[in-house]
Structure formats: C-alpha cells, structure tokens
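Record type: monomer structure entry
Structure origin: computed from sequence
Chain ID: A
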Amino acid sequence: MALIVQKFGGSSVADKERVMRVANRIVDTYKEGNSVVVAVSAQGDTTDDLIAKAQEINPNASKREMDMLLSTGEQISIALLAMAIESLGYPVVSLTGRQAGIKCDSNYGSAKIDNIQVQRLKNELDSKRIVIVAGFQGINKADDVVTLGRGGSDTTAVALAAALGADVCEIFTDVEGVYTTDPRIVKEAKKLDDISYDEMLELASLGANVLHNRSVEMAKKYNVNLVVRSSFNREPGTVVKEVNSVEKMLVRGVTRDNDVARIALLGIEDAPGEAFKIFSLLAKHGINVDIILQSIGRDTKDISFTVTESNLDKAIKLLEEKKDYIGYHELKQRSDVSKVSIVGAGMVNNPGVAAQMFEALYDAGINIHMISTSEIKVSVLVNSKNAERAVAAIHDKFHLAD
C-alpha cells in the first residue's frame, strides 16, 4: 500500500461534471489499496470573483482580511469534493489548512509554510478515510488564516507529501505533463517523460505555468517524488526528479514570459556603489530584479534591468523619488517586451548553445535587447510581438520536437 498525495487545480473542479470526474479519479486510486491525501484549489474563477467583491467594498482592504476572504474559496471546493466522494460510497473527510495542521509565518497574502503538524492527518488515514485538504492556506502564530500566494496549492501538496513521507505527489493540471514548450505556440511541442528538479525550477521561474517554482524548490529540498499529470485523461505524465548526468539533454525546453518590463537609468556616474544604491533601494521595497545590463561611456554609465510588469509603476515611482540620491540623468521604460529562455542541464558542458539560440533569432530577423545566462539557462529580452516567433524558431533550431 502506498501513500499518495494528489493536487487538483481550480479548472479541474470548476463545475459539477469535473468535480465528479475528480472524485472518481481519487476513488480509483483509493480502491487500489492506497492511502490518499488530496490538496484542492478554489473552483474555476472563484478567487478572482472574491477579489472583485472585495474591490467593491474596500479597494484598500488589509491583507489580513483579504486572506480571510480568499481562503473561503478552497473551503467550498473541499466540501463539494468530499460530498462527491461520499455519494460514491467511500469514507472521506475535508479539512481546512488549520484543521490539517499547516503552520505558516505571518506574511499575509504570500505566507510560507513553517511546518505541518500531521497527527490529525495520520489519524484520518489510519481510519481509512480519504483526506481532502484546502490548498493555498494555513494559519500563523496568531491563529489567523493566511494564504500562500500564487501557486499556493502546488506548494500545499508538496509540503503535505514531504511531511507525511508520501510515496508520490501527483500534480493534476489541464495539460498532460511538462512540454518542450507551450503547445499552444508550437503544436509540435513534445511531452517530456522526465525532467530534473533544477530544470523544472528554471522553467517554472521563467514563465512555464505547469508548476509553481516554490513547490519545485520544496520538492527538491525534501526529495519528493513529483509527477505532473492531466486531470482529464490517464496518460502517464512527466516525472520531476534528480536526473543523472548521462541522462542530461542539451536543451529541455523553451519558455516565454510576458510579465516583464525594462527600465533604463541613463547617465549615472561611473563610480563605485552606484549599482548598490539602485538595487538595494528596489530590494528594500520588495521589487525583484531579473536581467541586468550595464554599459559604460567615457565618464558615465547606463544601467538597464527588468522587473515584472506588475511592479513597473511602483519601481518607476520609487526611482523618480530618489533621482537625486541615485544621480541618473534620464529614466526610460518599456513594457512591450517578453523574456524568451532556453533551459537544459546539459548546457553546462556544451559550449556554443547560446550561439545557436542567437543564430535562430538572427535567422528569424528578431532583435535581442538584453541577455542573461546561468549554467542551465539562457534568457533574452525581445519585443513582445516577436515572442511567439522567437519560441518557435528556437524550438525548431534545437530539434526539440524530434
């Protein structure tokens, strides 16, 4: 008998038909003799609808009250799913994050899980019940409900698998696994049988929406056996694991991220500490910076960098307020850009991969604005209108459909 943790997203339980399909899927796993714990997201657009309701009442509502509101979405879905399993005649119990013992820090809206007190979970499993847990939520030291932020239900599932020592954690999505790129952009995109934690983490961080990067980080840390599968069919999916060097492919995937904006500060004094002024200021205000480019003139330098588009206005306001402190001459910004990246653990020992990527873009007539590299990824900034063509050209260049 295995202990299996499963996670179903909002689209998987969006309506009655899908709830019953998921219930049958869970029951089939249970009937095979397994212990089953399931993390579930809020149904369909429930979270967006709740946010809209909050906006109607108070656009400046506190994060604490927003967490109190948003956590109700998952409570609805776990109760309905448990009712569906009951209707099939199987023992089941639904638990909120609090009831499941999920202890978090007090960062409302994007809390991190500190630990899971598993005794209640183990008691329910010992009683042969299927356990349905609300994803995306837990409680802090003040006994307040907190939510885990974007991708929180993925993180909940992996945390449950780690805490319980589960044999496998299955993440069910609306795709059949992890692909070499988005099949909506390149119809020849190929599903991967397996991918390393590091490669999946890069893909998740660079715009692939299959798994959230926090869940992958946790899976790697606790060596959780992770599988990405479709909630709509019984195909095997993609295994996320540690991959031996002999298995490493040159490039595993191509991603596109449209949530990007570029800021350029021109005419900064070419002196020590100028970059520190800029990036420590942004960090202090919670603004993450990705690609950075510095160019040097005779007496001054220009520094360009990317932020998420959602942080663009906040970053510009901050930099303009601190113009005299930073000492730049001019600020320029543009949001009509996208980040296109290649990822592959095999790149570290194979020179010339970046050159092939740049050649593919050159052949497609696509200009590169900025470049960032690491051991297993290369990212470029291009015009948004060219992003899908860039993905297709790079995917073809590395023969990822073969």
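Annotation 1: The first strand starts at residue 3 and ends at 8.
Annotation 2: The mean pLDDT is 92.
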